[in-house]
Amino acid sequence: MRVLIADDHDLLRDTLVMFLQSQSDIETSSAADFSEACKRIESDDPYDLILLDLNMPGMNGLDGLKTAMTLKGGQRVALLSGSASRDIVEKALEAGAAGFVPKTLPAKSMINAVKFMAMGEQYAPIDFMTATEETPSHPLADKLTPRELQVLKGLTEGKSNKEIARDLDITEPTVKLHMKTLYRKLDASNRTQAALIAREAGLF
Predict the structure, then answer these.
(1) Minimal CB count within 10 Å: which of 26, 85, 98, 186?
(2) CA 29 and chain centroid, separation
(3) So what CATH class is 139-200?
């Protein structure tokens, strides 16, 4: 079984290689960034599984995952991360990733996960996928609808109505309507004041 591990943290990468090499049936190669990983995929003999760190240089999030999956006629690629959200993981699995391996996984579980994915199965830790993310209630956020919160977030990022409309896939007049409601609910007279109120309240 051949596995490629691509991660920019030397210690973690070397530790993973050591874990996997301790299994007599696993042969590993490694890369320090996305571009090196792509070169290895293209030039080496086929791998049974490729583990890509979500945040390493050149990866560009899920774009890197999708690119790697198309190389050399199609590859089994899994994400490796210590900070991925459940939303990212779900999108990766929907895109056809072989799975998701948290960096916090114990060595034995990681070896089992790698073997599982290399054999063609899809893997993600059940406790990670079913964990409930508790978002603390915020008095200001409680006043607003989810869409109003999205518009307000765009405001705090200094985006124009046009940019907010494009990001949320709604029309500019709809953004303006949400702004009016926002100003009233926040007791703000303009977009700058609304953004300041949100920032001072620690909403974003």
Answers:
(1) 85
(2) 24
(3) mainly alpha
Cα gap 191→182, rounded to integer Å: 9
For the entire predicted model, the pTM comes to 0.63
- Cα-based distances in Å from 66 to 52, 96, 111, 123, 171: 11, 8, 24, 17, 30
Whole-number Å distance between alpha carbons of 15 and 50: 16
Concatenate the DSSP letters of all residues of 136-160 into one string. Answer: ---HHHHHS-HHHHHHHHHHHTT--
CATH class entry, domain 2-130:
alpha beta
In angstroms, the CA 103 to CA 80 distance is: 7
* Res 146: pLDDT: 84
Indicate whether 132 pLDDT > 60.
no
Mean pLDDT across 171-198: 92
